[in-house]
């Protein structure tokens, strides 16, 4: 799933490639992906891309005041194309294509643009065409952005301290902290040397400060590693930069212990016992007693 660092990198990439260009037309292939009807997507034709920004894991493309807000969900991606002039229309229900945005041709006749694709059978990619991004339900409920200047240890204590929820779940809750998903929550907790099952209410001020440092440093480092990369290279960079997530059975780069996994119905988490749980493996079943 694209998380804050990848979406931030897509924002920077699209600022370079798309801002200042005129939208020729938008082709919606997966009609279930389009969540709004007013303004219609046809209203985007002839307008200019004036800005690109991010709200948590939402990508926001400003087209002369009309916002195309995109959530790539678990298996979605944005694929930039240098020339779409020869691209044939895609039939709904065929292949991974969800939408295609064609930009006005360059002087050399090339028609750049991008395609939104989604792998798998669970189609959750969402596109909203709105006058105000705040009207998108997922954007409206977002918590503070961890890369914002006002995201301080004191603020983290205010939103996490006292919670009777596991810290892994809190980090993934977009209404608590915006932009962190399954992969980077594993990475943050490894950097903070903290069990994913630790309760928010048990964190000391010192642990909250360490967690804050781990959040900010992990995300900023990931953004920096991705800076300047083309959209097609971001997935590979993310995978290569992860130290624990997706590395079950490998050696921890910090201590050399074997990275372990806890599996759930539709996801899993990875952690290092030596770094995070005092050397004790976590029981790999959903209803296990939680290690404090």
From TrEMBL:
The keyword Transcription does not apply. Its cofactor is Zn(2+). Keywords: DNA damage, DNA repair, DNA-binding, Glycosidase, Hydrolase, Lyase, Metal-binding, Multifunctional enzyme, Zinc, Zinc-finger. InterPro entries: FPG_cat, FPG_N, H2TH_FPG, Ribosomal_uS13-like_H2TH, Znf_DNA_glyclase/AP_lyase, Znf_FPG/IleRS. SUPFAM superfamilies: Glucocorticoid receptor-like (DNA-binding domain), N-terminal domain of MutM-like DNA repair proteins, S13-like H2TH domain. GO terms for molecular function: 8-oxo-7,8-dihydroguanine DNA N-glycosylase activity; damaged DNA binding; DNA-(apurinic or apyrimidinic site) endonuclease activity; lyase activity; zinc ion binding. Residues 2-93 form the Formamidopyrimidine-DNA glycosylase catalytic domain. The keyword Electron transport does not apply. It comes from the Bacteria. Residues 243-277 form the FPG-type domain. It catalyses: Hydrolysis of DNA containing ring-opened 7-methylguanine residues, releasing 2,6-diamino-4-hydroxy-5-(N-methyl)formamidopyrimidine. GO terms for biological process: base-excision repair. Belongs to the FPG family. PANTHER family: FORMAMIDOPYRIMIDINE-DNA GLYCOSYLASE. This is Formamidopyrimidine-DNA glycosylase. It comes from Sinosporangium siamense.
């Amino acid at each position: 799933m694209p998380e804050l660092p990848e979406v931030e990198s897509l924002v920077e990439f699209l600022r370079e490639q798309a801002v200042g260009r005129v939208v020729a037309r938008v082709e919606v292939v997966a009609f279930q992906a389009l969540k709004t009807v007013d303004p219609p997507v046809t209203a985007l034709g002839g307008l200019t891309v004036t800005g690109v920004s991010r709200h948590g894991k939402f990508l926001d493309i400003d087209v002369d005041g009309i916002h195309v807000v995109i959530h790539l969900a678990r298996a979605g991606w944005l694929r930039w194309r240098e020339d779409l002039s020869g691209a044939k229309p895609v039939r709904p229900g065929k292949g991974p294509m969800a939408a295609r945005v064609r930009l006005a041709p360059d002087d050399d006749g090339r028609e750049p643009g991008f395609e939104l694709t989604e792998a798998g059978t669970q189609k959750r990619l969402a596109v909203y065409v709105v006058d105000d991004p705040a009207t998108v339900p997922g954007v409206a409920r977002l918590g503070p952005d961890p890369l914002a200047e006002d995201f301080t240890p004191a603020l983290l204590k205010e939103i996490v301290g006292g919670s009777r929820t596991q810290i892994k779940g809190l980090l993934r809750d977009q209404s608590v902290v915006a932009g962190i998903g399954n992969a980077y929550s594993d990475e943050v907790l490894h950097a903070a040397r903290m069990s994913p099952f630790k309760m928010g209410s048990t964190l000391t001020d010192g642990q909250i400060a360490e967690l804050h440092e781990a959040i900010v440093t992990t995300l900023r480092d990931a953004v920096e590693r991705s800076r300047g990369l083309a959209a097609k290279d971001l997935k590979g960079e993310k995978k290569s930069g992860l130290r624990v997530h997706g590395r079950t059975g490998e050696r921890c780069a910090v201590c050399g212990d074997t990275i372990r996994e806890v599996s759930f119905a539709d996801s899993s988490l990875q952690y290092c016992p030596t770094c995070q749980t005092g050397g004790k493996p976590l029981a790999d079943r959903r209803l296990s007693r939680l290690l404090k």
